[in-house]
Amino acid sequence: MTTYTNSNAVVFLRGNLGQDPKLSKDGKCVILNLATHETKISEEGESKIFTVWHKVFVWDEYDRNVCLDSFKKGMRIRVTAKLRYKDIEDAEGDTHKIAVLHFYNGEGSELFVDSNNHMEG
Q1: Which of 47, 58, 88, 100 could cross-link with 30 by S-S, CB 3.0 to 4.6 Å?
Q2: Shortest CA distance to 102 belongs to which of 2, 1, 7?
Q3: Three-state DSSP class for residue 59
């Protein structure tokens, strides 16, 4: 069973799709795996780029169809969505919260192909 904790936070992300969008097993949403990148400077002054992965759940029927028909792996997109937390259990049986994004059209959410559509790296 999946348990979500609501948050009042809205998150804006710009990144690249790590794979083609997938319809959830129950067919109720489309799942996007979005990679964002951040640069960290080491103590030696060297910069290194890290990839951070985000799951975005798209619930709106129109937007689900747009994602499935138009979005492809590597495409750069922008998304503004609600932040929620999902409880997961690790191999030792401990429960942890992970952050996931839920896109519901009409609730302050936006989903666009980024006009500067190239791989970030």
Answers
A1: 58
A2: 7
A3: coil
Domain ranges across the chain: 4-113
- The whole model's pTM is what? 0.73
CB 12 within 8 A of CB 83: no
Long-range own/partner contacts, residues 112-115 (CB < 8 A, 24 or more apart): 112/77, 112/78, 112/79, 113/70, 113/71, 113/75, 113/76, 113/77, 113/78, 114/14, 114/76, 114/77, 114/78
Angle at 113 between CA 110 and CA 119, to 5 degrees: 130
Q: Which CATH class is domain 4-113?
A: mainly beta
41: which 2 tokens? Answer: 């400077």
User: What is the torsion angle, in degrees rounded to the nearest 10, for the CA atoms of residue 78, residue 72, residue 86 and residue 26?
Assistant: 130
Those residues of the chain that have pLDDT short of 70 are: 1-8, 104-110, 112, 115-121
